[in-house]
Specification:
Elements: H1 8-13, H2 24-36, H3 41-55, H4 58-70, H5 88-98, H6 100-113, H7 117-126, H8 129-151, H9 162-174, H10 180-184, H11 209-217, H12 222-246, H13 252-256, H14 262-267, H15 274-279, H16 288-301, H17 310-313, H18 322-332, H19 339-342
């Protein structure tokens, strides 16, 4: 579809004014999926084993409830990973963390009573302190990606905000393992992820409060703690590498769209509409000079605005700005994900 040689995008771009954008939500899901592969495979195996063990047995669910009552844990349902649900991984991990004590006791009890390798395998995995540390870490790390994913599943206009939000999120992740002065005023494309000169000391790598408190409370050696944090650093590096690979931070057309966000429209002293007109010339009709004049006149007439929603901000029923509003609404129609369309099939 997006191949540079014979993909549909390449073929159509030759003869049309094609605007191409990969689904933001799908891309973010893939970023999270590939970064999770840097963690031990037992983390994903545990998620799948627990769900498959309870999914088709009401008897086992009732048995688990006894342990949930004993541990004073709410008897919430065990969730399963769904490849077609972008936000499922975080919810699965959080549910397992919530039910950890009850699940661990249950599987340990089943080891002696049931001739089945599944309970024994799950019990052994849950007894490894590092595995619980990684699951606790994921409850925090996946939240950043899922918040972005949730935002861009919205049917409201989000494309003009995309790269600003991505840049903020990437730098937030970088702060967990890199020195702040190095990343503060640096472009994402210029950041060298594996430059150890800018890494924080291993002991200072941020892995989330819950995970940090857990490894501090366990009888782990300094070597084991460092190993956990080094693995998590690899997770961060892979996550940012995937984001940089799937989102082109040098796309000028998407950067230009930020000009129609209310904050940008009101805050810049010098902000011309001409670059937008040149880039998206097929999205407006009429006299270019009229469009420029209406842009400047609207900026002069709006000294401040409390409305942050882009649609409401430009929702003017004013003939004086008719051409400008039509152009901006055409820009706002550019899609940022396929989530809204895919909802019709579920």
């Amino acid at each position: 579809m997006a191949g540079s040689l014979s993909g549909l995008k390449t073929k159509m771009s030759k003869n049309t004014n094609l605007f191409y954008m990969k689904c933001t939500c799908h891309s973010l899901h893939l970023c999270a999926s590939y970064s999770c592969k840097k963690l031990p495979s037992d983390v994903e195996k545990l998620c799948r084993n627990i769900y498959s063990y309870f999914a088709w047995s009401s008897k086992r669910v009732l048995e688990l409830k006894e342990f949930q009552d004993f541990c004073d844990i709410k008897p919430h349902k065990i969730l399963g990973l769904a490849m077609t649900r972008w936000l499922s991984l975080e919810k699965v991990i959080c549910r397992i963390v919530e039910q950890w004590d009850a699940l661990q006791l249950y599987f340990l009890s089943q080891c002696s009573e049931v001739n089945n390798i599944k309970p024994k395998e799950s019990a052994n995995i849950m007894l490894v302190p590092e595995i619980k540390a990684y699951t606790l870490f994921l409850t925090n790390a996946l939240k950043i990606i899922n918040e972005l994913n949730t935002e861009f599943q919205s049917e409201s206009v989000r494309l003009p905000y995309l790269y600003n939000r991505l840049e903020v999120s990437v730098k937030l992740i970088l702060c967990n393992f890199c020195q702040t002065p190095y990343i503060k005023n640096k472009n994402i494309k210029d950041i060298v992820l594996k430059d150890k000169n800018h890494f924080l000391p291993v002991a200072n790598i941020c892995i989330g409060t819950k995970a940090q408190q857990y490894i501090d409370s366990e009888n782990l050696s300094e070597f084991e703690k460092c190993k956990i944090k080094e693995t998590i650093r690899e997770f961060y590096i892979e996550l940012i590498s995937q984001i940089k690979m799937r989102f082109d931070f040098e796309r000028e057309d998407l950067k230009l769209l930020e000009a129609i966000t209310p904050a940008k429209f009101l805050s810049e002293d010098e902000l011309s509409i001409v670059p937008l007109m040149k880039t998206f010339e097929n999205l407006y009709n009429g006299d270019p000079d009229d469009l420029i004049s209406q842009w400047n006149q609207l900026r002069l007439s709006l000294n401040e605005g409390k409305e942050k929603d882009i649609c409401k901000f430009f929702g003017l029923d004013e003939p004086l700005f008719k051409s400008l509003i039509e152009f901006i609404y055409n820009l706002m129609s550019l899609p940022h994900s396929f989530a809204a369309a895919e909802r019709n099939f579920f």
